[in-house]
Write a structure and sequence with these properties.
Blueprint: E1 3-9, H1 12-24, E2 30-35, H2 41-55, E3 61-65, H3 71-77, H4 80-86, E4 90-93, H5 98-107, H6 113-126, H7 131-144
Parallel strand pairs: 1-2, 1-3, 3-4
Helix pairs in contact: 1-5, 2-3, 5-6
């Protein structure tokens, strides 16, 4: 099973995990890590690396971080050489969202890490919508169908 680790500034990752479990139920190999105010990024990097070693079952680890280029991202990217030396299969997705996380935990048993990454990114793109614009477009389509 591919493991999933959520990493964020503050408690976003915990909240995301809580929401995902509310929707899909309890999950194994599904953890969170938070960067807390005043915490040094080198501490976060060490914690992140330790978590990935614990989560590694040999099928891969998918890490979601909240922001591209920010501290959780930098901590994850700082582990690349260490993961490579240990032969660990780890991927990092930025811009974490609930649809992406749900997709990951629901499909990780029947997918490769590479395919799961692509599915999650596609899910993220598909779930960014202008809901009001969509509502009025559908309403206009329905009113045009009356004629």
């Amino acid at each position: 099973m591919i493991s999933v680790l959520l990493v964020s500034h503050g408690k976003m990752a915990e909240g995301m995990k809580d929401s995902a479990i509310m929707i899909v139920g309890e999950q194994t190999q599904f953890e969170t890590l938070s960067l807390n105010p005043g915490q040094d990024i080198s501490q976060l990097k060490i914690q992140l690396f330790d978590y990935t070693k614990i989560l590694d079952s040999g099928d891969g680890i998918l890490i979601f971080v909240d922001l591209y280029g920010a501290s959780p991202y930098n901590a994850a990217m700082g582990c690349i050489q260490d993961w490579d030396q240990l032969g660990m299969n780890v991927r990092v997705i930025t811009g974490m969202s609930l649809p992406m996380v749900i997709n990951a935990v629901c499909n990780r048993d029947n997918s490769t890490l590479y395919d799961l990454v692509n599915e999650c990114i596609e899910t993220g793109h598909e779930n960014i919508q202008d809901a009001i614009d969509n509502f009025f477009n559908i309403a206009n389509e329905n009113s045009n169908d009356d004629y």
